[in-house]
Protein backbone atom coordinates (compact mmCIF):
# COMPACT_ATOMS: atom_id res chain seq x y z
CA UNK A 1 0.00 0.00 0.00
CA UNK A 2 2.77 2.45 0.86
CA UNK A 3 4.36 1.95 -2.57
CA UNK A 4 1.03 2.63 -4.30
CA UNK A 5 0.51 5.79 -2.23
CA UNK A 6 4.04 6.96 -3.01
CA UNK A 7 3.49 6.40 -6.73
CA UNK A 8 0.14 8.20 -6.57
CA UNK A 9 1.67 11.20 -4.77
CA UNK A 10 4.56 11.26 -7.25
CA UNK A 11 2.17 11.19 -10.20
CA UNK A 12 0.11 13.96 -8.65
CA UNK A 13 3.16 16.16 -8.11
CA UNK A 14 4.33 15.46 -11.66
CA UNK A 15 0.94 16.57 -12.99
CA UNK A 16 0.45 19.76 -10.95
CA UNK A 17 4.06 20.99 -11.05
CA UNK A 18 4.30 21.25 -14.86
CA UNK A 19 6.20 17.94 -15.12
CA UNK A 20 9.11 18.77 -12.81
CA UNK A 21 10.97 15.47 -12.58
CA UNK A 22 13.33 16.61 -9.81
CA UNK A 23 10.44 17.44 -7.49
CA UNK A 24 8.66 14.18 -8.34
CA UNK A 25 11.79 12.12 -7.62
CA UNK A 26 12.35 13.98 -4.33
CA UNK A 27 8.78 13.27 -3.20
CA UNK A 28 9.12 9.60 -4.16
CA UNK A 29 12.38 9.27 -2.21
CA UNK A 30 10.99 11.00 0.88
CA UNK A 31 7.90 8.79 0.89
CA UNK A 32 9.64 5.47 0.23
CA UNK A 33 12.78 5.99 2.35
CA UNK A 34 10.96 5.51 5.72
CA UNK A 35 9.48 2.19 4.63
CA UNK A 36 12.80 0.97 3.24
CA UNK A 37 14.46 2.01 6.50
CA UNK A 38 11.81 0.14 8.46
CA UNK A 39 12.44 -3.04 6.43
CA UNK A 40 16.21 -2.72 6.91
CA UNK A 41 15.82 -2.25 10.67
CA UNK A 42 13.51 -5.25 11.01
CA UNK A 43 15.76 -7.49 8.92
CA UNK A 44 18.94 -6.36 10.68
CA UNK A 45 17.35 -6.90 14.09
CA UNK A 46 16.50 -10.52 13.31
CA UNK A 47 19.25 -11.72 10.99
CA UNK A 48 23.02 -11.38 10.73
CA UNK A 49 25.26 -12.10 7.78
CA UNK A 50 28.09 -14.61 8.11
CA UNK A 51 30.90 -14.49 5.60
CA UNK A 52 33.29 -17.24 4.56
CA UNK A 53 33.02 -20.14 4.43
CA UNK A 54 29.20 -20.44 4.74
CA UNK A 55 27.99 -17.11 3.28
CA UNK A 56 24.52 -17.19 4.77
CA UNK A 57 22.10 -15.26 6.96
CA UNK A 58 21.68 -16.61 10.47
CA UNK A 59 18.58 -15.64 12.49
CA UNK A 60 19.23 -13.83 15.74
CA UNK A 61 17.06 -12.60 18.57
CA UNK A 62 17.35 -8.86 17.99
CA UNK A 63 21.09 -9.07 18.65
CA UNK A 64 22.17 -6.50 16.08
CA UNK A 65 19.43 -4.08 17.15
CA UNK A 66 20.47 -4.31 20.81
CA UNK A 67 24.12 -4.07 19.86
CA UNK A 68 23.49 -0.95 17.79
CA UNK A 69 21.50 0.56 20.63
CA UNK A 70 24.33 -0.28 23.03
CA UNK A 71 26.90 1.44 20.81
CA UNK A 72 24.71 4.46 20.20
CA UNK A 73 22.15 5.40 22.89
CA UNK A 74 20.36 7.61 20.34
CA UNK A 75 19.88 4.70 17.93
CA UNK A 76 16.10 4.66 18.40
CA UNK A 77 15.84 8.44 18.21
CA UNK A 78 17.78 8.67 14.96
CA UNK A 79 15.53 6.08 13.32
CA UNK A 80 12.42 7.85 14.62
CA UNK A 81 13.61 11.26 13.43
CA UNK A 82 14.61 9.88 10.03
CA UNK A 83 11.31 8.03 9.56
CA UNK A 84 9.01 10.87 10.57
CA UNK A 85 11.23 13.60 9.13
CA UNK A 86 11.09 12.04 5.67
CA UNK A 87 7.33 11.78 5.94
CA UNK A 88 7.01 15.43 6.91
CA UNK A 89 9.39 16.53 4.15
CA UNK A 90 7.42 14.63 1.51
CA UNK A 91 4.10 16.01 2.75
CA UNK A 92 5.53 19.54 2.85
CA UNK A 93 6.68 19.28 -0.77
CA UNK A 94 3.26 17.99 -1.82
CA UNK A 95 1.45 20.78 0.00
CA UNK A 96 3.80 23.47 -1.33
CA UNK A 97 3.43 22.33 -4.94
CA UNK A 98 -0.35 22.07 -4.50
CA UNK A 99 -0.64 25.60 -3.10
CA UNK A 100 1.51 27.04 -5.90
CA UNK A 101 -0.63 25.33 -8.53
CA UNK A 102 -3.85 26.48 -6.85
CA UNK A 103 -2.63 30.08 -6.74
CA UNK A 104 -1.85 29.95 -10.46
CA UNK A 105 -5.28 28.54 -11.28
CA UNK A 106 -7.01 31.03 -8.97
CA UNK A 107 -5.23 33.94 -10.61
CA UNK A 108 -6.17 32.72 -14.09
CA UNK A 109 -9.80 32.08 -13.14
CA UNK A 110 -10.06 35.43 -11.42
CA UNK A 111 -9.04 37.19 -14.62
CA UNK A 112 -11.83 35.28 -16.40
CA UNK A 113 -14.29 35.84 -13.52
CA UNK A 114 -14.96 32.15 -13.11
CA UNK A 115 -14.96 29.73 -10.20
CA UNK A 116 -12.89 26.55 -10.13
CA UNK A 117 -14.01 23.47 -8.24
CA UNK A 118 -10.86 21.48 -8.96
CA UNK A 119 -8.77 24.13 -7.20
CA UNK A 120 -10.93 23.82 -4.10
CA UNK A 121 -10.57 20.04 -4.21
CA UNK A 122 -6.79 20.28 -4.48
CA UNK A 123 -6.60 22.74 -1.61
CA UNK A 124 -8.97 20.84 0.66
CA UNK A 125 -7.53 17.36 0.16
CA UNK A 126 -3.90 18.48 0.09
CA UNK A 127 -4.28 20.53 3.25
CA UNK A 128 -6.20 17.75 4.98
CA UNK A 129 -3.51 15.21 4.14
CA UNK A 130 -0.77 17.51 5.40
CA UNK A 131 -2.58 18.36 8.66
CA UNK A 132 -3.19 14.69 9.43
CA UNK A 133 0.45 13.84 8.77
CA UNK A 134 1.57 16.80 10.86
CA UNK A 135 -0.70 15.93 13.79
CA UNK A 136 0.58 12.34 13.81
CA UNK A 137 4.29 12.90 13.22
CA UNK A 138 5.09 15.97 15.29
CA UNK A 139 4.08 14.42 18.67
CA UNK A 140 6.32 11.45 17.90
CA UNK A 141 9.25 13.75 17.11
CA UNK A 142 8.66 15.80 20.25
CA UNK A 143 8.18 12.85 22.57
CA UNK A 144 10.82 10.55 21.08
CA UNK A 145 13.33 11.49 23.80
CA UNK A 146 10.99 10.21 26.52
CA UNK A 147 9.38 6.81 26.16
CA UNK A 148 6.77 7.72 28.80
CA UNK A 149 5.73 10.99 27.20
CA UNK A 150 1.99 11.45 26.82
CA UNK A 151 2.43 12.91 23.36
CA UNK A 152 4.35 9.83 22.25
CA UNK A 153 1.77 7.47 23.76
CA UNK A 154 -1.11 9.27 22.05
CA UNK A 155 0.75 9.43 18.74
CA UNK A 156 1.63 5.74 18.86
CA UNK A 157 -1.99 4.85 19.58
CA UNK A 158 -3.02 6.87 16.51
CA UNK A 159 -0.22 5.47 14.34
CA UNK A 160 -2.46 2.92 12.53
CA UNK A 161 -4.52 5.83 11.23
CA UNK A 162 -1.48 7.27 9.49
CA UNK A 163 -1.36 4.26 7.16
CA UNK A 164 -5.11 4.23 6.44
CA UNK A 165 -6.10 7.89 6.16
CA UNK A 166 -3.77 8.76 3.22
CA UNK A 167 -5.39 5.99 1.17
CA UNK A 168 -8.87 7.25 2.08
CA UNK A 169 -7.93 10.83 1.14
CA UNK A 170 -6.41 9.67 -2.15
CA UNK A 171 -9.56 7.71 -3.06
CA UNK A 172 -11.74 10.67 -2.06
CA UNK A 173 -9.69 13.02 -4.22
CA UNK A 174 -9.85 10.66 -7.21
CA UNK A 175 -13.64 10.29 -6.91
CA UNK A 176 -14.19 14.04 -6.57
CA UNK A 177 -11.92 14.72 -9.52
CA UNK A 178 -13.80 12.19 -11.64
CA UNK A 179 -17.12 13.76 -10.62
CA UNK A 180 -15.89 17.22 -11.62
CA UNK A 181 -14.70 15.88 -14.97
CA UNK A 182 -18.08 14.21 -15.54
CA UNK A 183 -19.97 17.41 -14.72
CA UNK A 184 -17.69 19.38 -17.02
CA UNK A 185 -18.35 16.88 -19.82
CA UNK A 186 -22.11 17.16 -19.33
CA UNK A 187 -21.89 20.97 -19.35
CA UNK A 188 -19.82 20.92 -22.56
CA UNK A 189 -22.30 18.53 -24.20
CA UNK A 190 -25.21 20.78 -23.20
CA UNK A 191 -23.50 23.83 -24.70
CA UNK A 192 -22.80 21.91 -27.91
CA UNK A 193 -26.47 20.93 -28.16
CA UNK A 194 -27.56 24.51 -27.46
CA UNK A 195 -25.25 25.84 -30.18
CA UNK A 196 -26.60 23.24 -32.60
CA UNK A 197 -30.15 24.38 -31.87
CA UNK A 198 -29.32 28.05 -32.35
CA UNK A 199 -29.85 28.07 -36.14
CA UNK A 200 -33.09 26.07 -36.10
CA UNK A 201 -36.68 27.15 -35.50
CA UNK A 202 -37.82 26.42 -31.97
CA UNK A 203 -41.50 26.00 -31.07
CA UNK A 204 -42.94 26.58 -27.65
CA UNK A 205 -46.36 25.79 -26.23
CA UNK A 206 -48.36 28.91 -25.30
CA UNK A 207 -50.98 29.30 -22.62
CA UNK A 208 -54.53 30.51 -23.37
CA UNK A 209 -53.77 34.13 -22.41
CA UNK A 210 -50.59 34.16 -24.45
CA UNK A 211 -52.45 32.76 -27.46
CA UNK A 212 -55.10 35.52 -27.16
CA UNK A 213 -52.42 38.23 -26.94
CA UNK A 214 -50.58 36.72 -29.88
CA UNK A 215 -53.83 36.66 -31.89
CA UNK A 216 -54.57 40.32 -31.14
CA UNK A 217 -51.03 41.35 -32.09
CA UNK A 218 -51.27 39.31 -35.27
CA UNK A 219 -54.61 40.95 -36.15
CA UNK A 220 -53.18 44.45 -35.68
CA UNK A 221 -50.17 43.61 -37.82
CA UNK A 222 -52.43 42.25 -40.58
CA UNK A 223 -54.56 45.42 -40.47
CA UNK A 224 -51.47 47.63 -40.70
CA UNK A 225 -50.20 45.65 -43.67
CA UNK A 226 -53.61 45.84 -45.39
CA UNK A 227 -53.84 49.61 -44.92
CA UNK A 228 -50.30 50.09 -46.18
CA UNK A 229 -51.12 48.13 -49.31
CA UNK A 230 -54.08 50.37 -50.30
CA UNK A 231 -53.51 52.90 -53.15
CA UNK A 232 -53.40 56.57 -52.20
CA UNK A 233 -55.24 59.47 -53.90
CA UNK A 234 -53.11 61.99 -55.73
CA UNK A 235 -54.90 64.77 -53.89
CA UNK A 236 -53.72 63.47 -50.55
CA UNK A 237 -56.81 61.50 -49.60
CA UNK A 238 -56.92 57.81 -49.09
CA UNK A 239 -59.00 55.73 -51.45
CA UNK A 240 -61.52 53.74 -49.55
CA UNK A 241 -61.75 50.10 -50.38
CA UNK A 242 -64.61 49.00 -52.59
Automatic annotation (TrEMBL):
Residue ranges, annotated region (Disordered): 207-242
Top-level division of the source organism's lineage: Eukaryota
UniProt keyword Transmembrane, yes or no: yes
Record's keyword terms, sorted: Membrane, Transmembrane, Transmembrane helix
TM regions (residue ranges): 21-43, 81-100, 121-142, 154-175
Name of the protein described by the UniProt record: Uncharacterized protein
Organism: Phanerochaete sordida
Lineage of origin: Eukaryota, Fungi, Dikarya, Basidiomycota, Agaricomycotina
Amino acid sequence: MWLALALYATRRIHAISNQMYCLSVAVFIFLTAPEVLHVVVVVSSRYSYIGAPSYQCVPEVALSYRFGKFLNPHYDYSITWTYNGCRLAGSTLILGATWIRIFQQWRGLRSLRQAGRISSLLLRDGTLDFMICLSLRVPILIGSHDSESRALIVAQSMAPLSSVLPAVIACRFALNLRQCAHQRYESAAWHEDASAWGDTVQFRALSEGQEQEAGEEGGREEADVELAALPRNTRGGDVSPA
